[in-house]
Amino acid sequence: MKNNYFKAAAFALTMLLFSCSTQDLTDESQDPSTTTNSSTTKMSKMAPTKPTAPKIWEFNDLNEWEDATQVGNPNYFIDTNNGYLHLFTNANTWDRTKVKSVATYATGSYSWRVYVPTMGVGDMASIGAFLYNNDTHELDFEIGYGNRAIRQQLNAASDELIVYNTSQANPYHSFQSKIKREQWYTLTIELALNSKKKYVTTWKIDNVVLSSATLTYGTATKFKIFCSVENLTFIGDHIPYTQNYALFDWVEFK
C-alpha cells in the first residue's frame, strides 16, 4: 500500500511540474504585438502628438472675423466671385477701414495673401496686415505710396510702393523697403520665443526675410489678426485724392 501511495504522489508531483513548465513556455511564446504591459502603455502615452493643422481663412465669408473700423463706414465686402476680402477708403477722408479676428493668438506664423494695387501718388493711405493687442503691443506690415523723403531715401521708382515693418513699442522698431505695385504678395510675421521666453518676430515677403526684432514681452500678450486699408498721415504727403483699396485672398495661422 505504501508503495502504491508513493507511486501516486510521485506521479502527481510530476504532472504538476509538467503543467508549470508548459505554462511558462506558453507565456514566453505569446505574440508580443498582442501583449499589453506597463512599458507599452507608457510609451504610447509619451508618443508625440500630431502637429496642429494650419488655420486658414479663405474669405468666402467673414466667419470668425469682426468689424474693427475706427473712422468712417465699414468699407469692405466679400467678392463672392473670387473669394476675396475687398477693403477700401474714400478720397478726401480719414477713413480707417479694418476687420479683425475674433480669437487671439501667440507664437506661430501669420500670413496674409494680399493684392497691392496702384495707389494714389502722394496719398496718405496704407494697406495693413498686422497683429494688435494694444497701442504698445502691435506688429505691422504697412504699405503705401510713402512721403517724398522716404521715397528719395530708398530711390523708389514710379511703379514702386513703400512697405514698413514695424513694432510700435517694446521696443520700437521700423524697417522700410520697396515693392512693386499691381502684384500679389504673401506677407508673413513669424513669432518665436528665445531662451528668455520673449518673442522674436520676423517679417517676410514671399518667404524672403526683411527684418527681425527681439521684443521685451512673451506669450502673456496675445494678438488679434487685422486686415486694413487706412488713411494715415505718416505714409504720404497729403490727404488721399483717390479711393484706395486692397484685396485679401486668405489669411493663415500655423
Radius of gyration over all CA atoms, rounded: 32 Å
Number of domains: 2
Q: Compute the number of strand runs.
A: 15
Structural class: alpha+beta
Strand percentage lies at: 35-45%
Look at the structure and give the CATH class of the largest domain.
Answer: Mainly Beta
Q: Which CATH architecture of the largest domain?
A: Sandwich
Signal peptide: 1-26
Biased composition (Low complexity): 33-46
Region (Disordered): 25-51
Keywords: Signal
Give your account of this protein's structure:
- Helix content is 17%, strand content 42%.
- The chain has 254 residues and is α+β, with helices and mostly antiparallel strands.
- A hairpin with a 2-residue loop joins strand 12 (199-205) and strand 13 (208-214).
Give a brief rundown of this model.
By secondary structure, this protein is of the alpha+beta class. The chain is built from three helices and 15 strands. A hairpin with a 5-residue loop joins β9 (160-167) and β10 (173-180).
Helices and strands, with pairings:
Layout: H1 2-28, H2 38-46, E1 55-57, E2 65-67, E3 76-79, E4 84-89, E5 96-101, E6 108-116, E7 126-134, E8 137-144, H3 148-154, E9 160-167, E10 173-180, E11 183-193, E12 199-205, E13 208-214, E14 224-230, E15 244-253
Antiparallel strand pairs: 1-15, 2-5, 3-4, 4-15, 5-14, 6-11, 6-15, 7-8, 7-14, 8-9, 9-10, 11-12, 12-13
Features:
254 residues; globular; 7-stranded antiparallel β-sheet; alpha+beta; disordered N terminus; Jelly Rolls; signal
